[in-house]
Amino acid sequence: QLQLVESGGGLVQPGESLRLSCAASGFTRSYYAIGWFRQAPGKEREGVSCISSRGETTNYADSVKGRFTISRDNAKNTVYLQMNSLKPEDTAVYYCAAGVTTVQAMCARERGVDYWGKGILVTVSS
Fold first, then answer.
1. Which of 7, 29, 41, 53 registers the highest number of CB atoms within 10 A of its CB?
2. pLDDT digits (tens, 9 = 90+) for 60-85
């Protein structure tokens, strides 16, 4: 069983930055792809960014390209989401997820996701 715990959320003003972390524990396997998803109030959950097991392949939603960067440190069993130039529309609960799948399938259709974190709130407001 794999446990995923998100951290780093909070309240920021438009234009500011945040870095989310997703720490994995339990029966960790470095060959899991990891993804960040978000769900805004009244909206469906969407894939934000996903990264392959060794970090060589990444995927981003069009709405965050050029502003968000995903990375991973397998030695620390942690995946990061650096979020810059935040906008009010980035306000959502952010979840990390893990699965043995491709980043494209994971981010586009949540295909192959085996584990979810509980989520963390990010609020962008002036």
1. 53
2. 999 999 999 999 999 999 999 999 99
